[in-house]
Amino acid sequence: MKRDSVKLVWDSKNKLVKANGINNIELMAEVYPWALKEGSDSVEIKDLQYQLAPINRRLIQGDNYNVMQFLLENGYSEKFDLIYLDPPYYSETNYNSKIKIGHKDKERSITRPIFKDSWDNLDAYLDYLYPILTLSKELLSKEGNLFVHLDWHASHYIKVILDEIFSKERFINQIVWCYGGGSGAKRYFHRKHDIILWYSKSNDYIFNPQYRPYTEKTLDRGLTKVKGNKYVLNEKGALMQDWWTDINKILSPTAYENLKFPTQKPMALVQRIIKAGSNENSLVGDFFCGSGTTAQVAENLNRFWVVCDNNNIAVQTTQNRLIESNSHPFTIETTMPWSGEFNSLNINWKYDDNNLMVSLDSKKTDIDMLNFWEIGIKEQDVFKSMFQLIRPKENLTYLPDKIVLKNIELIRDKKIIVNAYDYLGNIKQASLG
Ligand SMILES: C[S@@+](CC[C@H](N)C(=O)[O-])C[C@H]1O[C@@H](n2cnc3c(N)ncnc32)[C@H](O)[C@@H]1O
């Protein structure tokens, strides 16, 4: 049977010549999460989790086209069981992250630019997304699934493009995620749903059915009474439909999950997608990773993951979140040097035979601007982050400012490195001793 010839056409389609890509992704760090929060300022552990080298838990800073192309050429063709893409939606909005830093009496707000979702025209937007969707298909395993998260602005155009790339037979679901919240709309219905397009690589795709609780009415009535024994209630619940109304957007500024990252998706939403479309030990990809929701959910569900973002703050938010949730060791890699420097940092280093103390010099450091810092060693030119000093979620005004590393054989006689990250996405590295 002849395949459909219906396609979306725009002037620059297939004419855009993308730059040659990249030759390498540089390994910035291996991170062994061992976060020091409130309470103790000393660590007395000998071997840590240090032996577990990170494998396929990769946080990459860089443009997704370059990263995906690089992965494709370096062993990742047909390796991903699931790819979740949550790109800009063609919304003509610039997204900033506003946060409050400092203590009550000295509190101040800072605005951090994250990404621009503004385009010359629809052509430019499609030129940007089309190659990413094409590369996604090549990265997907034979049983793999692609989920593309969009909304009313452009989902219909992308649907037609995905039909072209995957064929319309590989279109599985249009998931409608409904949520509440205010809106100023007076001349039309409030736009309160997103669209998630699901395509599979082949007909033999992974699907683990998901369930929702039965409605009270169904439970009261009991299906058995109405329809006989054939229709006993399933103890897991009712099979999930393609419209989801049970997951709220992260709206409250004090919500536990809220990382003050605009467009951050709830873990429950991404969890449903990853549970349904991949298996334990599957490799999951997200090439617009933002605050790192996919990486964290993949961790929680025992999946491997490769995620990327071209924004420093997104990468640092993901890094911090994975450390906070005590993830397996992971790597941080980059296709481009980190931009900017955090020059006000001054690190005070104290050492004696028994005590190894690293502390921030609070007089010379704007600690309020410091998001987190970490200590590690350099081995064979690779930085290994061994202790991370982060702000506890429950008390963001607190950041541990010193650490005493007693009797830790691993770091004795090694070159100690300290990295500090500020809220604007800058990093400062110091080599001690
Ligand atoms: C809608 S947000 C993703 C939010 C994410 N799902 C979460 O839960 O936090 C889109 C992200 O894509 C990133 N991005 C946009 N264009 C990119 C590109 N060309 N390469 C890599 N990342 C990009 C932005 O920096 C932003 O963090």
Can you give me a brief rundown of this structure?
Helices cover 19% and strands 31% of the residues.
Mean pLDDT: 89
CATH first level of the domain at 59-328: which class?
Answer: Alpha Beta
Biggest β-sheet, characterized? 15 strands, mixed
Sequence stretches where pLDDT stays below 50 over 5 or more residues: none
What's the shape? globular
- Structural class, from secondary structure content? alpha/beta
Provide the gyration radius in Å: 24 Å
CATH topology of the domain at 59-328: Rossmann fold
Strand content: 25-35%
Cα(first) to Cα(last) distance is: 71 Å
Structure annotation, total helices? 8
* Tally of strands: 23
List the main descriptive attributes of the protein structure presented here.
433 residues; alpha/beta; four-stranded mixed sheet; 19% helix
3D structure, described in words:
It contains eight helices and 23 strands. The protein starts with 25 loop residues before the first strand and ends with a strand. The protein has helices spanning 64-73, 122-139, 155-166, 216-221, 223-227, 267-277, 293-300, 312-324, and strands spanning 26-31, 35-36, 42-43, 57-61, 80-85, 93-101, 108-117, 140-150, 171-178, 193-200, 211-212, 238-239, 243-244, 283-286, 304-309, 330-334, 347-351, 356-360, 370-379, 382-390, 402-405, 416-422, 427-432. It has a domain at 59-328: Rossmann fold (3-Layer(aba) Sandwich), CATH 3.40.50.150. It is of the alpha/beta class. The strands form four sheets. The chain has a 15-stranded mixed β-sheet that branches. The chain has a four-stranded mixed β-sheet with strand order 3-21-18-17, with no helix packed on it. It has a two-stranded antiparallel ribbon with strand order 6-7. The relative contact order is 0.19. It is globular, with a radius of gyration of 24 Å. α2 (122-139) packs parallel to α3 and α6 crosses α7 (293-300). The model has no long low-confidence stretch (mean pLDDT 89). S-adenosylmethionine (SAM) binds at residues 63-64, 86-88, 114-115, 261, 263-265, 288, 290-291, 293, 308-311, 314. The site of S-adenosylmethionine (SAM) has 20 residues, from β7 and β15.
